[in-house]
Amino acid sequence: MKKVSIKDVAREAGVSVTTVSHILNHNEKRFSKETIHKVMDAKEKLGYFPNKNAQQLRGSKIKLIGVLLPSLTNPFFSTIMQSMDQNKPEDVDLFFLTTTGKELESNIKHLVERGRDGLVIGRLIENPEALDTYLKKRNVPYVVLDQSEDHGFTDMIRTDENAGGQLAAEHLVELGHRSMAIVQPYEMMTNMKDRVHGFMTYCQKHGISKPAIYETTLSKAGGASIVPSIIESKATAVFAINDELAIGIMRGMADRGMSVPNDLSLVGYDDIDFARYIIPSLTTVAQPMEDIGALALTLIMKKIQNQGSDTEKIELPNKLVVRETTRRIN
Ligand code: RIB
Asked: What CATH code would you report for 63-159+289-315?
């Protein structure tokens, strides 16, 4: 079906294209009520809507921001997206895209070629220097989130992952756990490595034997499938690198007639919304997802408006939320 153009609206209304353009862009003061009605009626009748890309090319003030994330289904990322969407000013359009690490670079180039004003990148950047050069050359500012690396030239929103891991360890050690395990993905992001580092360092400082590490896929299924190894390890407590893994571990335990926290204490990471509703509710290290989304948006807008400003890093705190999956042991 042919797309209705502004020319079709002008023809239908019997006025010029310029008149239609003025009226549809709320610049209608100098036109009679009758002309305005004719244009609005023609627009309605033909189902015309303006082409935002064309407006962009003509220098409209709408800002297009591309947001690249690893997943749309993990509530950690969808909460960030929702927060960005809810906080976006009227003159901003967000374009969300999921990407694997391998495809990140080509996806970024694709977005830049399509004319984005700025990017928010929530995926590990493999070659940060090259990407920085590429984007700066094209005057496309970017902000990264959910990463730890500080190259000195990247604007970023991150959380204190090291402290997050320590909080999890401290809680379990206070409850009397001495034999612990960590469940992490095969592919570790640097921020996740920081979590593990924080957990390990706390254990080491307090004379707790080194937690065993089990690797699996970063998903609920991955958590469920690693349960036989956890049971065999005789660990009394597990730190799961995110809540999805923790939920999977709970399912795997239940499938084997075992229970959390009676047979295993469990701490997750993120505090996705399911965490408080599942039974038992999940003890976890909460990341401020809404703030991450809102601040990423504020920062990228600032960069778009004033590209020459200094590099900014915003580090947000994480907090432990104690619920029902952890218990005291002798
Ligand atoms: O749930 C997704 C996890 O991967 C989160 O913990 C986030 O920080 C990311 O690294």
From this structure: 3.40.50.2300
